From TrEMBL:
Functional description taken from the UniProt entry: Part of the ABC transporter complex hrt involved in hemin import. Responsible for the translocation of the substrate across the membrane.
MacB-like periplasmic core domain: residues covered: 18-239
Domain ABC3 transporter permease C-terminal: 283-398
Pfam families xrefs: FtsX, MacB_PCD
Name the UniProt record assigns to this protein: Putative hemin transport system permease protein HrtB
Family recorded in the similarity comment: Belongs to the ABC-4 integral membrane protein family. HrtB subfamily.
Subunit and interaction comment: The complex is composed of two ATP-binding proteins (HrtA), two transmembrane proteins (HrtB) and a solute-binding protein.
Length: 408
């Protein structure tokens, strides 16, 4: 009897237990793969999420909140700083370039961001070409990120009105509060119309899910700021050097009600917090690994008990101990291998199906079909666990005398 035929027949003989074993391995592997994909997306997003803007200036508050709102369009801004500060920053010899940002409105949950058009060549290079149309140049013109345009179904030439707040439905809630000021603000947003003049190419950053327009849109919509009293949400600064970054942070961080942060440090702090959450999930994953190994072990113990006579008969007709050993260990490894392959497919499929939800929520790009470096270690570790779990029952059958095994 061929070894492969014996293995396959044994697996099919106990369909339910074999299926449970395969599923336990597959679910564990799929969970690990999905965590690896999210972790890689987080690292890539952190690396290129803020471009060359090593210093960010904004209102006093949480440095992480300022970085997340400015570059990832997550959460609320820490407040506003005077527009006049932008001119002061640009005159600083340590500053290579600086751009102010205004935000606070949305279109169906996608943030509307006021930014000077010069931001894009500084952030992404001078050779960045729009997928459609042109960059905005005057009040009321807007350019959509590739994901925002696709999700909203909007094209060049379309018009839209924004809503107050950074979350879809926020304006409706404000209006429901019954305040006259909120009602007037709601009406102001619906009376201001944007015209789409361009669509950005896929940039693989959070800018893909933003809507960009002129810096002065917020002042025109809210009609509450004029002249020297105009405010902006944040100032993005590209220093001329690393020493320049330190000088800028120190200088502008001393201004009352203003903070200047190292963008990379603020982003790293967020990544560290997420890593702690990932470590907690790793504990759950470890429990799943133990359960999967236990399932394989119980499955093969049951197989040995069921097939004692079969094993004894194989030994009596001349099959070696090595053949018996390979048959039992091979069954465990076969179930593990099937579960491993299925788990890898499920994990990547889950990443593919969930990529848009993850990107819309956190701005993280998941490369769903990209093979992660850790997957090779995962495959080796999974097969090793399966082999070790199968070795115990196989050793039990391996050591028993064939006559005693057959008589029992």
């Amino acid at each position: 009897m061929k070894l492969i035929s014996l293995l396959w027949n044994n697996i099919l003989h106990r369909k339910t237990l074999s299926l449970v074993t395969v599923l336990s391995v597959a679910i564990t592997v799929a969970l690990v793969v999905f965590l690896l994909l999210c972790s890689a997306g987080l690292e890539q997003g952190a690396e290129k999420g803020y471009g060359p803007f090593e210093v960010t200036i904004g209102a006093k508050g949480s440095a992480s909140q300022l970085a997340l709102n400015t570059y990832y369009h997550i959460g609320a801004p820490t407040g506003n700083v005077p527009l006049s500060l932008l001119d002061e920053v640009r005159k600083d010899p340590q500053v290579s370039s600086a751009f102010a940002m205004t935000t606070g409105d949305n279109l169906n949950g996608f943030p509307i961001v006021g930014m000077e058009p010069g931001y894009f060549p500084v952030r992404y290079g001078n050779d960045t070409q729009l997928a459609e149309g042109k960059l905005y140049g005057k009040l009321g013109e807007a350019v959509l990120g590739s994901y925002a345009a696709s999700a909203l179904g909007l094209h060049v030439g379309d018009k839209f009105q924004g809503a107050h707040g950074l979350v879809k439905g926020a304006a409706d809630e404000d209006e429901g509060a019954g305040a006259d000021g909120d009602h007037d603000e709601h009406e102001a947003h619906h009376s201001f119309t944007y015209t789409i003049v361009g669509i950005l190419p896929p940039l693989h950053t959070s800018d893909d899910r933003a809507i960009y327009t002129t810096l002065d849109y917020a002042w025109a919509v809210h009609e509450s700021q004029s002249g020297a009293n105009k405010d902006v949400t944040a100032i993005l600064v590209k220093p001329s050097s690393l020493l320049g970054a330190q000088s800028i942070k120190t200088k502008y961080g001393q201004i009352s009600n203003v903070q200047a942060i190292y963008t990379s440090k603020a982003v790293a702090d967020v990544v560290n917090v997420v890593d702690k959450g990932t470590q907690a999930l790793s504990v759950v994953t470890g429990v799943c690994v133990v359960l999967a190994a236990g399932t394989i072990l119980l499955s093969l113990i049951a197989a040995v008990q069921e097939r004692k006579r079969d094993v004894g008969l194989l030994r009596l007709i001349g099959k070696s101990k090595g053949f018996i050993w390979m048959a039992l260990v091979g069954e465990g490894l076969s179930l593990t291998l099937i579960g491993l392959i299925l788990g890898l497919l499920i994990g990547h499929l889950g990443g593919y199906l969930g990529r848009e939800a993850v990107f819309e929520f956190a701005g993280l790009q998941i490369q769903s079909w990209q093979l992660m470096p850790g997957e090779w270690m995962l495959a080796v570790f999974t097969l090793l666990i399966g082999g070790l779990a199968a070795a115990g029952p196989a050793l039990q059958a391996y050591r028993v005398d064939p006559l005693q095994l057959f008589k029992s």
